Amino acid sequence: MSKQTPFPRTFSHIGLSVPDLDAAVKFYTEVLGWYLIMEPTNIEEDNSAIGEMCTDVFGAGWGEFRIAHLSTGDRIGVEIFEFKNQENPENNFEYWKTGIFHFCVQDPDVEGLAEKIEAAGGKRRMPKPRYYYPGEKPFRMIYMEDPFGNILEIYSHSYELTYSAGAYS
């Protein structure tokens, strides 16, 4: 039996947890321009297909939550959850711990999007955008935080263009 090279899987979606679903939908549709594809919906722990699916994931006793589904311009899904008894961590940027610590969006106007995020209640995690290859290439980035504590990064250029240039200089 020959070993086959695996094909690169595509990214389907990411799930975010927020304390205020309506405010998050407003932020992500108005600031990042994502499409709302399923209005905020209440999901209850019951014998429905979605209720049982969530019990499989969260375990018994989760009660209920609200969820909305959005989509990015390149068709990546974003599930936004609002759980009862939601807790905001004191520091949501524990990058040294296992798990996802940020997601990244792409916009050629890094500075402009950073300003929009700040104006909508988010904050900068860096004072200004930085260049990956100063004086050589225009690739810029900045770490930000949405108004709900989720860490997002902004790239000026595609991931592939940024890293196909080789190692950091």
UniProtKB/TrEMBL annotation:
Keywords: Lyase, Metal-binding
Domain VOC: 10-157
Name of the protein in question: Lactoylglutathione lyase family protein
InterPro entries, sorted: Glyas_Bleomycin-R_OHBP_Dase, Glyas_Fos-R_dOase_dom, Lactoylglutathione_lyase, MMCE/EMCE_epimerase, VOC_core
Taxon lineage: Bacteria, Pseudomonadati, Pseudomonadota, Gammaproteobacteria, Alteromonadales
GO biological process, one term: L-methylmalonyl-CoA metabolic process
Pfam families to which the protein is assigned, alphabetical: Glyoxalase
Recorded superkingdom: Bacteria
